[in-house]
Amino acid sequence: MGPIQDATSKAATPKAAGNQGLLTLAIDIGGTGIKSVVLNAKSEPVGEFRRVLTPRPATPKAVLAELHASVMEHRAFDRVSVGFPGVIRHGVVWTAANMHPKWVGYDLASALSALLGKPVRVANDADIQGLGASEGQGLELMITLGTGIGSAILNNGLLVPNLELGHHPFDKGQTYEERLGKAAYDQIGPERWNKRLQKAIATLEAFFNYDRLYLGGGQAKKINFKLPPNAKITPNREGLLGGIALWK
User: Fold this and answer.
1) Angle between helices 108-116 and 60-71 (to 10 degrees)
2) What are the E-state strand segments in the chain?
3) pTM value?
4) Which of 19, 43, 119, 180 would bridge with 11, disulfide CB 3.0–4.6 Å?
C-alpha cells in the first residue's frame, strides 16, 4: 500500500487469533463523533458498532480517555486501525484543523499502542473511507462531508495519501471546507448548501476526470439532488471497514 505502511506503531504484529484470523479494532475519530468496531479478516463486523461523542475540547488526552472507555466495551482484538481527520505521517498527526492544536506533532500511533497494548496503524480518515469504498478500478475520488471536508484519490485501488482537498480554494475566495463544511450548512441552510455541492462536484469532475466519485460523511445524508451517474453516496461505516486495508 506504499506510504500508508509508514503510519505504524513499533509494536510487533500478533499471531493469528482463532479461525477468524486477526481481529482488527477499527476506529474513526471525527470532529463530532468517535466510531469503532471489531472486524475479522474479511472486513466483517464481529461485534457491535459503537459511537461516542468527541469530547470538547478535543485534546489528545481527552480523546484517548474517551477512546479507552469505549474500547473496553468491545471484544478481544489483535491490532488497531485508526482514521484521523488530518494529515498523518509515520503515525504522527501533522494537521488537525477540526480538532485541537495540541494534536499537531502528536504521535497517535505510539500513544494508542501504549494505551491498548496492541500494534496500531493510523491514516487520514478520508483515506481509509476511500479504501473501504474503492472498487479497485480506474480513478476514484472520495469526498467526505462532515464537520470538515475530507478527500482521497485512488488509481486502480492505489491510494495517494493526505490529499486534503478541503483546504484548497474553491469559490469566492473560500475553501471547500469553508463553503461546504457543517458550519456552512448550519449557516446557509439545505437549499443553498446543495447548490454549492452541485457546483463543487462539477468543478471536481472537470479537474480530476475521475471514473467514480464517492460521497460519505455525516452530511452526505443532507444531499437532496440527483447525483451524476458516476457518483454515489457511500455508507459511513466504510470509514471503519477500510481499516483492514492498512494492514495489507
Assistant:
1) 40
2) 24-29, 33-39, 50-53, 79-84, 88-89, 92-93, 120-124, 139-145, 149-155, 158-160, 169-171, 174-175, 212-216, 231-233
3) 0.88
4) 119
